[in-house]
Amino acid sequence: MNLSSLTINAARSAVQEGKTTAAALAEACYAKIESDDPQIGAYLTLAKDRAFAKAAEIDVLAAKGEKLPPLGGVPVGIKDVMVTRDARTTAGSKILGNYVPPYDCTAVARLEAAGAVVLGKTNCDEFAMGSSNENSAWRPVHNPRDLSRVPGGSSGGSAAAVAADMAVVALGSDTGGSIRQPASFCGVVGLMPTYGRVSRYGLIAFASSLDHIGPLSKTVTDAAIVLRTIAGRDPMDSTSADVPVPDYVAELGKPVRGLKIGVPKEYFGEGLDAEVQMAVETAIQKLAALGCEIISLSLPHTKYAISTYYIVATAEASSNLARYDAVRYGFRAKGAHTLSEMYKRSRDQGFGTEVKRRIMLGTYALSAGYYDAYYLKAQKVRALLAQDFEEAFKKVDAIVTPTSPTAAFKLGEKVDDPLAMYLADIYTVTADLAGIPGISIPCGETKEELPIGLQILGKHFDETTILRIAHAYEQARNA
Amino acid sequence: MKVTDKDVAYVADLANLELTSEERARLLRDLNSILDYVNQLNELDTSNVQPMAQVLHRYSDESQKGVENFVYASRDDIHESLRKSLARKVALANAPETDGTFFRVPKVIER
């Protein structure tokens, strides 16, 4: 039994039935991390004490023959933008290089309450700002499928950990595509739930109206299990929605025949790699063969999405990152004689290049004289983008697109051209702006054997439908 | 709108960043390039569009046809002394500089 390649149910059953132990599962993942992570770079911090303490708890239950909780003994990785009590959390940044949180992110706490074994913190772009995991202050992450290429970002560490069997599932965060795009580049499943579906309490904030927490996993079922565990109202996050959590797993096997699937023409135009297009179109044909009705439609404001995103997100980031002032936590520069010097010097030395670029852009867009032209304008275009989806969802149940215009690019390829890097997010940012859920699932490979991702977008709080479609496709593809 | 050196200096001040001269030069180039691109938003007539600051704002409005009626999570008002807060030692644990009671910073008020 290759312990670290198991799915959630297989791992949990194996522990329940005494075929293995939670400690052995954790050990298997740590062994994989020791042998493979020097080349990949998926983990920043390992939490062995915490992991083995939890594993021991689960093993006691199993030994007594008691029913294990839904994620009993399952090893998980947590993106380093989510705080973990007493375990160093850096958000991929030197400005939080020694930060040890006094509390747990709600999503992490819920996973652990369900029996999950937190292995450690996964690498990410600094403050979740990036599409390649090359902006980590610590080191870049390498794609396990091709070490010369990026894993995607900003949840590159989480995607790589799952793809390389260094965790069974991982949590990531998505603000402009940061769960779905790395899932697509690494050949794993990545789910971004509806905005407000999962509490953001304990998620180090990047852009508060766009941030989401969600799972990266090997299968659609695993994503559904994790979502069911972490979703739901949280009084500590006033933007978490008071909407009941369905049993996403129970709904998975229901037939997709008759579901209407929209294919937006704006996602199949210039810039889309030919191999990606072919793989996605083949996947759509498979959905048709499963009985779905394929309907062509238009999301007319798509081309304005990147501009909208990079104004709204950077504006919100400039505000959220103002808290890193070297007073209560974080890096403090030496030799500052005044308060102002301390702020300015600590922040310039502590933040990386991309973070400073976005803070500057956001501050500019919000500054007096420019607020109307940029931030207010962007908020209005955001409304138009949301409206595009509202209109579309009157006619269809889900929308299918490529997750990314290309497969994984080479490390270093886009670092010198920030705008080129931003434009790679074109198919993912729209969902964040509208607040709708989206999932990326593997649908093929390029001739260089690089994974290609299929994205399924759904209505607000209708993760059930996108999971069902994703599951049906996954089963059909593996058949 | 073309961003100037003076703009970069002004914005850096607002953002509390002490940029090096290389950083200023690079940011001048990057900001101009990005703002040039985002200018495309002016192609759209948004004079009759309500700004969308928050996903939930749009969908908790009864006049909008959202799929779900978003309701915010809330909690009861609790008198301060009845809610747990961090112990002082815990709150100070990550402080760059502390005297055991307060966070220490350089002089705030010039006399």
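Chain B touches chain A through 63 residues (CB under 8 Å).
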